[in-house]
Protein backbone atom coordinates (compact mmCIF):
# COMPACT_ATOMS: atom_id res chain seq x y z
CA UNK A 1 0.00 0.00 0.00
CA UNK A 2 2.88 2.33 0.81
CA UNK A 3 4.33 1.91 -2.68
CA UNK A 4 0.97 2.52 -4.37
CA UNK A 5 0.45 5.66 -2.30
CA UNK A 6 3.88 6.91 -3.27
CA UNK A 7 3.25 6.31 -6.97
CA UNK A 8 -0.06 8.14 -6.81
CA UNK A 9 1.52 11.09 -5.07
CA UNK A 10 4.15 11.31 -7.81
CA UNK A 11 1.56 11.26 -10.57
CA UNK A 12 -0.76 13.88 -9.09
CA UNK A 13 1.40 16.91 -9.98
CA UNK A 14 1.57 15.79 -13.60
CA UNK A 15 -2.19 15.36 -13.69
CA UNK A 16 -2.64 18.82 -12.23
CA UNK A 17 -0.35 20.36 -14.84
CA UNK A 18 -2.21 18.70 -17.66
CA UNK A 19 -5.47 20.17 -16.43
CA UNK A 20 -4.35 23.80 -16.53
CA UNK A 21 -6.08 24.69 -19.80
CA UNK A 22 -4.56 26.56 -22.75
CA UNK A 23 -1.25 27.19 -20.99
CA UNK A 24 -0.69 23.54 -20.12
CA UNK A 25 2.56 22.00 -21.43
CA UNK A 26 2.07 20.00 -24.60
CA UNK A 27 -1.33 21.41 -25.54
CA UNK A 28 0.06 23.04 -28.69
CA UNK A 29 -0.47 26.64 -27.60
CA UNK A 30 3.31 27.14 -27.52
CA UNK A 31 3.24 26.88 -31.31
CA UNK A 32 0.65 29.66 -31.45
CA UNK A 33 2.47 32.21 -29.27
CA UNK A 34 5.99 32.48 -27.96
CA UNK A 35 9.46 31.24 -28.74
CA UNK A 36 8.42 27.83 -30.10
CA UNK A 37 6.04 29.49 -32.53
CA UNK A 38 8.68 31.98 -33.69
CA UNK A 39 11.18 29.12 -34.09
CA UNK A 40 9.04 27.73 -36.92
CA UNK A 41 10.46 30.61 -38.97
CA UNK A 42 13.96 31.52 -40.11
CA UNK A 43 16.82 31.71 -37.59
CA UNK A 44 16.31 34.86 -35.55
CA UNK A 45 12.70 35.30 -36.62
CA UNK A 46 10.65 37.02 -33.91
CA UNK A 47 7.22 36.74 -35.51
CA UNK A 48 4.87 34.19 -34.00
CA UNK A 49 1.31 33.28 -34.99
CA UNK A 50 -0.10 35.56 -32.30
CA UNK A 51 1.51 38.60 -33.91
CA UNK A 52 -1.12 38.57 -36.66
CA UNK A 53 -3.84 36.23 -35.36
CA UNK A 54 -5.74 36.43 -32.08
CA UNK A 55 -7.18 33.31 -30.42
CA UNK A 56 -10.36 34.83 -28.98
CA UNK A 57 -12.07 36.52 -31.91
CA UNK A 58 -11.42 40.18 -31.05
CA UNK A 59 -8.89 40.85 -33.87
CA UNK A 60 -7.94 44.21 -32.38
CA UNK A 61 -4.67 45.49 -33.79
CA UNK A 62 -4.04 42.39 -35.89
CA UNK A 63 -4.04 41.94 -39.64
CA UNK A 64 -4.93 38.24 -39.86
CA UNK A 65 -8.15 36.38 -39.28
CA UNK A 66 -8.78 35.03 -35.81
CA UNK A 67 -7.49 31.58 -34.91
CA UNK A 68 -10.71 31.02 -33.00
CA UNK A 69 -12.97 28.77 -35.12
CA UNK A 70 -10.30 28.53 -37.84
CA UNK A 71 -9.42 24.83 -37.87
CA UNK A 72 -12.39 23.37 -39.72
CA UNK A 73 -12.74 25.93 -42.53
CA UNK A 74 -13.23 24.59 -46.05
CA UNK A 75 -10.16 26.48 -47.29
CA UNK A 76 -7.74 29.18 -46.16
CA UNK A 77 -6.01 32.33 -47.44
CA UNK A 78 -9.00 33.24 -49.58
CA UNK A 79 -8.95 29.80 -51.21
CA UNK A 80 -5.25 29.79 -52.09
CA UNK A 81 -4.58 27.26 -49.32
CA UNK A 82 -6.93 24.25 -49.57
CA UNK A 83 -6.01 22.65 -46.23
CA UNK A 84 -5.13 23.82 -42.73
CA UNK A 85 -1.57 22.59 -43.28
CA UNK A 86 -1.35 24.71 -46.44
CA UNK A 87 -2.64 27.70 -44.53
CA UNK A 88 -0.11 27.22 -41.74
CA UNK A 89 2.72 26.82 -44.25
CA UNK A 90 1.69 29.97 -46.10
CA UNK A 91 2.55 31.84 -42.90
CA UNK A 92 5.55 29.74 -41.89
CA UNK A 93 7.28 30.04 -45.26
CA UNK A 94 5.85 33.31 -46.58
CA UNK A 95 5.81 35.56 -43.52
CA UNK A 96 8.17 33.86 -41.10
CA UNK A 97 10.81 32.62 -43.56
CA UNK A 98 10.80 29.05 -42.30
CA UNK A 99 10.67 25.60 -43.88
CA UNK A 100 7.31 24.07 -44.76
CA UNK A 101 5.94 21.66 -42.17
CA UNK A 102 4.61 18.21 -42.95
CA UNK A 103 1.40 16.69 -41.63
CA UNK A 104 3.39 14.42 -39.31
CA UNK A 105 5.75 17.02 -37.84
CA UNK A 106 5.20 17.14 -34.09
CA UNK A 107 5.05 20.95 -34.16
CA UNK A 108 2.26 20.89 -36.72
CA UNK A 109 0.38 18.09 -34.97
CA UNK A 110 0.44 20.05 -31.72
CA UNK A 111 -0.52 23.35 -33.37
CA UNK A 112 -3.38 21.69 -35.23
CA UNK A 113 -4.60 20.10 -32.01
CA UNK A 114 -4.59 23.48 -30.28
CA UNK A 115 -6.41 25.19 -33.14
CA UNK A 116 -9.02 22.45 -33.17
CA UNK A 117 -9.50 22.87 -29.43
CA UNK A 118 -10.52 26.53 -29.92
CA UNK A 119 -12.59 25.91 -33.05
CA UNK A 120 -16.22 24.98 -33.62
CA UNK A 121 -16.47 22.10 -36.16
CA UNK A 122 -19.70 23.66 -37.42
CA UNK A 123 -17.85 26.78 -38.64
CA UNK A 124 -16.63 25.77 -42.08
CA UNK A 125 -17.13 28.81 -44.32
CA UNK A 126 -13.95 30.21 -45.86
CA UNK A 127 -12.74 33.63 -44.75
CA UNK A 128 -12.59 35.97 -47.79
CA UNK A 129 -9.40 37.74 -48.81
CA UNK A 130 -10.07 41.36 -49.76
CA UNK A 131 -7.07 43.69 -49.85
CA UNK A 132 -7.85 47.26 -50.86
CA UNK A 133 -5.99 47.67 -54.16
CA UNK A 134 -6.21 51.18 -55.61
CA UNK A 135 -4.65 52.37 -58.86
CA UNK A 136 -1.26 53.53 -57.59
CA UNK A 137 0.53 55.46 -54.88
CA UNK A 138 -1.14 58.72 -55.91
CA UNK A 139 -4.58 57.14 -55.42
CA UNK A 140 -3.63 56.06 -51.89
CA UNK A 141 -2.32 59.57 -51.21
CA UNK A 142 -5.68 61.06 -52.15
CA UNK A 143 -7.62 58.48 -50.13
CA UNK A 144 -5.61 58.66 -46.90
CA UNK A 145 -4.68 62.30 -46.38
CA UNK A 146 -6.36 64.45 -43.74
CA UNK A 147 -6.32 62.26 -40.65
CA UNK A 148 -6.24 63.29 -36.99
CA UNK A 149 -2.66 63.04 -35.69
CA UNK A 150 -3.69 63.13 -32.03
CA UNK A 151 -6.14 60.26 -32.47
CA UNK A 152 -3.54 58.31 -34.44
CA UNK A 153 -0.93 58.18 -31.68
CA UNK A 154 -2.57 55.48 -29.56
CA UNK A 155 -3.73 53.58 -32.64
CA UNK A 156 -0.17 53.56 -33.98
CA UNK A 157 1.10 52.07 -30.72
CA UNK A 158 -1.57 49.37 -30.81
CA UNK A 159 -1.36 48.39 -34.47
CA UNK A 160 2.13 49.31 -35.65
CA UNK A 161 4.33 49.64 -32.59
CA UNK A 162 4.53 45.89 -31.98
CA UNK A 163 6.88 45.56 -34.95
CA UNK A 164 8.09 49.04 -35.75
CA UNK A 165 8.98 50.31 -32.27
CA UNK A 166 11.96 48.04 -31.85
CA UNK A 167 12.95 46.69 -35.26
CA UNK A 168 11.37 43.26 -34.87
CA UNK A 169 12.83 40.59 -37.17
CA UNK A 170 10.16 39.12 -39.44
CA UNK A 171 11.49 36.12 -41.27
CA UNK A 172 14.88 37.26 -42.56
CA UNK A 173 13.96 40.97 -42.70
CA UNK A 174 13.88 43.64 -40.01
CA UNK A 175 10.87 45.91 -39.62
CA UNK A 176 11.54 49.59 -40.29
CA UNK A 177 11.83 51.83 -37.27
CA UNK A 178 9.36 54.67 -36.76
CA UNK A 179 12.10 57.16 -37.68
CA UNK A 180 12.19 55.58 -41.15
CA UNK A 181 8.43 55.48 -41.57
CA UNK A 182 8.02 59.22 -41.03
CA UNK A 183 10.14 59.82 -44.13
CA UNK A 184 7.68 58.00 -46.41
CA UNK A 185 4.91 59.80 -48.29
CA UNK A 186 1.29 59.50 -47.20
CA UNK A 187 0.51 57.48 -50.32
CA UNK A 188 3.39 55.11 -49.84
CA UNK A 189 2.53 54.45 -46.21
CA UNK A 190 -1.10 53.71 -47.08
CA UNK A 191 -0.16 51.51 -50.03
CA UNK A 192 2.25 49.52 -47.91
CA UNK A 193 -0.31 48.96 -45.15
CA UNK A 194 -3.03 47.90 -47.59
CA UNK A 195 -1.05 45.74 -50.02
CA UNK A 196 2.22 44.61 -48.39
CA UNK A 197 3.18 41.08 -49.29
CA UNK A 198 1.31 38.88 -51.77
CA UNK A 199 -1.39 41.23 -53.19
CA UNK A 200 -0.59 43.48 -56.16
CA UNK A 201 0.36 47.00 -55.08
CA UNK A 202 -2.03 48.75 -57.47
CA UNK A 203 -4.13 48.15 -60.54
CA UNK A 204 -1.95 50.53 -62.55
CA UNK A 205 1.40 49.28 -61.23
CA UNK A 206 3.46 47.22 -63.62
CA UNK A 207 4.90 45.17 -60.76
CA UNK A 208 4.47 44.56 -57.06
CA UNK A 209 6.11 47.50 -55.31
CA UNK A 210 5.29 46.43 -51.74
CA UNK A 211 6.96 43.04 -51.28
CA UNK A 212 8.27 41.81 -47.95
CA UNK A 213 7.23 40.08 -44.74
CA UNK A 214 4.81 42.75 -43.51
CA UNK A 215 1.20 41.50 -43.52
CA UNK A 216 -1.36 43.73 -45.21
CA UNK A 217 -4.35 45.17 -43.37
CA UNK A 218 -7.75 44.93 -45.05
CA UNK A 219 -10.33 47.65 -44.31
CA UNK A 220 -12.07 45.14 -42.03
CA UNK A 221 -8.82 44.83 -40.03
CA UNK A 222 -8.04 48.55 -39.90
CA UNK A 223 -10.67 51.13 -40.80
CA UNK A 224 -10.12 53.92 -43.30
CA UNK A 225 -10.29 56.54 -40.55
CA UNK A 226 -7.90 54.68 -38.26
CA UNK A 227 -5.34 54.38 -41.07
CA UNK A 228 -5.76 58.06 -41.92
CA UNK A 229 -5.14 58.95 -38.28
CA UNK A 230 -2.09 56.68 -37.99
CA UNK A 231 -0.54 58.23 -41.08
CA UNK A 232 -1.33 61.75 -39.85
CA UNK A 233 0.44 60.86 -36.58
CA UNK A 234 3.53 59.77 -38.54
CA UNK A 235 3.49 62.82 -40.79
CA UNK A 236 2.84 65.51 -38.16
Report on this structure.
This protein has a two-stranded antiparallel sheet with strand order 1-2. It is an all-alpha fold and 236 residues long. It has helices at residues 2-17, 35-38, 49-52, 84-94, 106-117, 137-144, 149-159, 161-164, 178-181, 186-195, 224-235, and strands at 169-170, 173-174. The model is unreliable at 1-25 (pLDDT under 50). It contains eleven helices and two strands; from the N terminus they run ααααααααββααα.
- Identify the strand order in the major beta sheet: 1-2
Structural class given helices, strands, pairing?
Answer: mainly alpha
Characterize the biggest β-sheet. 2 strands, antiparallel
Rounded average pLDDT: 88
Distance between the termini: 76 Å
By DSSP (H or I, 4+ residues per run), the number of helices equals 11
Q: Total number of β-strand segments?
A: 2
What fraction strand? under 5%
Indicate the radius of gyration in whole angstroms: 21 Å
Q: Helix fraction?
A: 40-55%
Which sequence of SSEs, written as H and E, runs from N to C? Answer: HHHHHHHHEEHHH
User: Poorly predicted ranges (pLDDT <50, ≥5 residues)?
Assistant: 1-25
Overall geometry: globular
Amino acid sequence: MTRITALLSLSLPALALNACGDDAPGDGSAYYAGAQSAALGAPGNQADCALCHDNDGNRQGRSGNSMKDIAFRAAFKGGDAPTLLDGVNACVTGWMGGTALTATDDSYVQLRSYLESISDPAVTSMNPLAPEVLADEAAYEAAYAGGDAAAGAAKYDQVCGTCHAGGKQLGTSTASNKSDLVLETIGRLAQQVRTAGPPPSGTADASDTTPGPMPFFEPSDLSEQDLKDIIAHLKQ
